[in-house]
Design a protein that fits this description.
By secondary structure, this protein is of the alpha+beta class. 43% of the residues lie in helices and 17% in strands. The strands form two sheets. It has a three-stranded antiparallel sheet with strand order 2-1-6.
């Protein structure tokens, strides 16, 4: 057993399995948000994407093919700091998916277990669209914007917990 003390910059949350699970869960949700919001942009440039070759996999094991997808609430309400914070917590957390067959499926993001793309070429197109939408350069891996969003959130939480200095 290593008795070396953790460096001062070490994140104590890493030692808490529940916190680690929660952080990974939020990261996955950010990846799903990034991919689904990029889908429509990519589909506009490549209508063939809307034929069902891209889908989400639900926690129940269902494959839901995507013709179009829209977040139900994708805005920030800036009436007060409280309203703004609340709207930021819930924006892009529920998606309405229109299938090629005409069905409309509304799913909260936590019910989406996976993303399914039938070809590697389509997967690359979606990654490029997601990078373009988030303003990421070509060097960042897919999911980097999801990571940076998570990092910003954690910094804000840490700042909120820090005692104010006079």
């Amino acid at each position: 057993m290593d008795a070396t003390p953790a460096p001062a910059h070490h994140d104590p949350d890493r030692r808490d399995p529940a916190r680690t699970r929660d952080v990974r869960h939020v990261f996955w949700q950010n990846v799903v948000q990034q991919a689904l919001t990029a889908f429509n942009q990519q589909a506009a440039a490549n209508p063939a994407l809307t034929d069902g070759r891209v889908a989400v996999l639900t926690r129940g094991g269902e494959r839901v093919a995507i013709r179009a997808v829209h977040p139900l609430f994708a805005c920030t309400v800036n009436v007060s700091p409280t309203d703004r914070a609340l709207s930021e917590l819930v924006q892009c957390t529920v998606f309405e998916i229109h299938t090629p067959g005409g069905e409309v499926v509304t799913l909260p993001i936590e019910e989406i277990r996976g993303l399914h793309v039938l070809t590697e070429e389509l997967a690359e197109q979606l990654k490029e669209a997601a990078a373009a939408e988030t303003g990421a350069g070509g060097d960042e891996p897919f999911g980097y914007a999801a990571f940076t969003s998570l990092a910003r959130q954690r910094r804000a939480e840490a700042e909120a917990r820090a005692p104010e200095s006079d």
